[in-house]
Each structure stands twice: as C-alpha cells, then as structure tokens.
C-alpha cells in the first residue's frame, strides 16, 4: 500500500531525530502513525525534559505559525 510505504519512509527519515519546538523545548520523534479513524498521519514524540509522550497531526507538525515563517518544529 502507498500509505504504508509513506509512513515507513517518514519513519526512516524522522524517527529518533531531535526537534526544537518554537517555544524552545526539545523533543525526540518516536514514530509516525496513522489515526485509526481518519488515517491522518500523526507524529508521536517524547519530551526530552519531562519524558511525556505527545501526538500531533503531521500537518500541524510542519506548520508555519507566524508571518515571519517560523516553523512549529525545527530539526536540531
């Protein structure tokens, strides 16, 4: 399936990489996952300070959040 290949490719390129949120905290990508209801791609990630696990739609992960072109997450 095309979707499965896409998820695998994204996992290979993002998994275990560290990203900085625009507010400053660092996160490690755990995996890319599909939402069970919508099949929307989501990023599962872990806070490096507190160890909390989070999930966010991939579309929001790559979002530009202001008129200056600031990305929500930037790989470090």
Offer a quick outline of the entry.
The protein is of the alpha+beta class. Helices cover 22% and strands 37% of the residues. A five-stranded antiparallel β-sheet has the order 4-3-2-1-5.
What this model shows, in words?
By secondary structure, this protein is of the alpha+beta class. It contains 2 helices and 5 strands. It has a 5-stranded antiparallel β-sheet. Strand 3 and strand 4 form a beta hairpin. The mean pLDDT is 92.
Radius of gyration: 13 Å
Shape: globular
Q: How many helices does DSSP assign?
A: 2
Cα end-to-end separation: 31 Å
Mean pLDDT metric:
92
Write the layout of secondary structure elements.
Layout: H1 2-14, E1 18-21, E2 26-34, E3 41-47, E4 53-57, H2 58-61, E5 73-75
Antiparallel strand pairs: 1-2, 1-5, 2-3, 3-4
Output the keywords.
76 residues; alpha+beta
């Amino acid at each position: 399936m095309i979707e499965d290949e896409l998820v695998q490719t994204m996992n290979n390129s993002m998994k275990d990489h560290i990203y900085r949120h625009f507010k400053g905290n660092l996160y490690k990508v755990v995996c890319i996952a599909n939402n069970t209801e919508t099949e929307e791609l989501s990023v599962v990630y872990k806070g490096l300070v507190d160890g909390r696990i989070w999930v966010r739609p991939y579309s929001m992960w790559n979002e530009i959040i202001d008129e200056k072109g600031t990305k929500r997450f930037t790989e470090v």
